[in-house]
Amino acid sequence: MTTKNVRAHAYDILERVRDGAYSHLLVNDVIEKQRLSAEDAGLLTELVYGVLKQRPALDFYMTPFLKQKPSALDRRIQTILQLSLYQMAFLDRIPNRAAIHEGVNLAKANGRKGLSGMVNGVLRNADRKGLPDPETIQDEWRRKEVQTGHPVWLLQLWANMFGKETAFEAAYCNLKKAPVTLRTNTLQQSREALQEILNEEGVATSFGKLAPEALITASGQPAKTEAFASGRFSIQDEASMLCARALDPKPGMQVLDACAAPGGKALHLMEWMQDEGFVTASDLHATKLPLIHEQAERLGLTSFALLPRDARQLSNDFAEGAFDRVLVDAPCSGLGVIRRKPEIKAYPDSSHLKEFPPLQEEILHEAAKLVKPGGRLVYSTCTLNSEENEAVVKKFLHEAPGWKLEEDLAEKLGLQADAKKRTMAGAVTILPQDAGSDGFFIASLFKE
Ligand SMILES: C[S@@+](CC[C@H](N)C(=O)[O-])C[C@H]1O[C@@H](n2cnc3c(N)ncnc32)[C@H](O)[C@@H]1O
């Protein structure tokens, strides 16, 4: 495949993401179906994620060379300019003239022949006169929007929660590449033994900082190893590994994962319990459940059942107090996983965030009914939004008598003071800058 074709694929993906598709699924799909070489796959990933991460900067760069605002451009032309400017501003290995030439060709190929002259003019001007410097932006929020690629509404949301400096730090961190983190299947070997096995297969790793079962990939392709095929590990973010630790189910227990797909935590819970006991992995979307079955087979795990259910109606299936442990890893806005899914920050304002708390509250109440007296309920999200995290838990505690937060959660998880200080007692908030994991929230509840 030529670099030119890789750009055309990147453009198609970016346009489809603007229509609501998920970048990581499309990128993986093109890499697989087109059988891209490692080099082409790297370039495609870089172009798609780079543009999605840096959109505010790319629009800022094109502005001096346009007659209208970037948002008023023909949408396809805006995407083509973003893609070309990304190569010019961020990729040293691509000469500007190649980026310009291919940008013009993309405009022609996508039915924008009449506008290809405009693309040519903007890009040539940018090349000749140089790109504007974000440091010259007077307003601090707008400047940070351009520098971090995060919209002002999101920076302000985080500044209200964590303070301005911490919020900016999280946003800068999201510009980095997310690590590929591996969860040792401790039923097969220790983390140290897995590290050696992977080393022999050409995958170098270091120990994770948050979870004792985590390895961080330094080089190589872990998903292509024999060790992966034979179930020695899974790929899972490190912060999300802490859910099993927080829930801490013992072998032989009855456990419910109420929002289980695609299954990372449910499978971890089975490993945690030595595959003894029973994990009911339930999810609203039946189509997502077979993947859990497939992964369980790979990992050699058998102690589970899959259940396609709306978590708001689980008490139709189970008696009150049927489970020793219940995990609610709730559907959320995903503001902690922006590095992996940068389109998450593309909303023009925060109004879409309002849809989540009512659903989260309902699921939490229903799940709580199913916990045995003396049992434990863990509520987690991969978002950094107090309305979906602390506020949901506080409202639940207010409405559900007898429930309390486990105040020593941060200590139990072995976390630094920061994770605890940022939120209420009995919960932790992990930011991407803490240990390189995703942003994550966990609260652990028990009923007296
Ligand atoms: C954050 S993801 C769960 C990730 C999963 N725990 C893991 O570790 O792989 C949230 C899940 O909730 C599911 N979901 C959304 N609404 C739901 C509902 N009303 N009842 C049950 N599951 C729901 C989604 O399908 C999604 O798979």
TrEMBL record:
UniProt subcellular location: Cytoplasm
Span of the signal peptide: none
Residues engaged in binding S-adenosyl-L-methionine: 259-265, 283, 310, 329
Alphabetized Gene3D superfamilies for the sequence: NusB-like, Sun protein, domain 3, Vaccinia Virus protein VP39
UniProt keyword terms in alphabetical order: Cytoplasm, Methyltransferase, RNA-binding, rRNA processing, S-adenosyl-L-methionine, Transferase
Top-level taxon of origin: Bacteria
EC top class, as a word: transferase
Keyword S-adenosyl-L-methionine part of the UniProt annotation: yes
Family statement drawn from the similarity comment of this UniProt entry: Belongs to the class I-like SAM-binding methyltransferase superfamily. RsmB/NOP family.
Name of the protein this chain belongs to: 16S rRNA (cytosine(967)-C(5))-methyltransferase
Organism expressing this protein natively: Salsuginibacillus halophilus
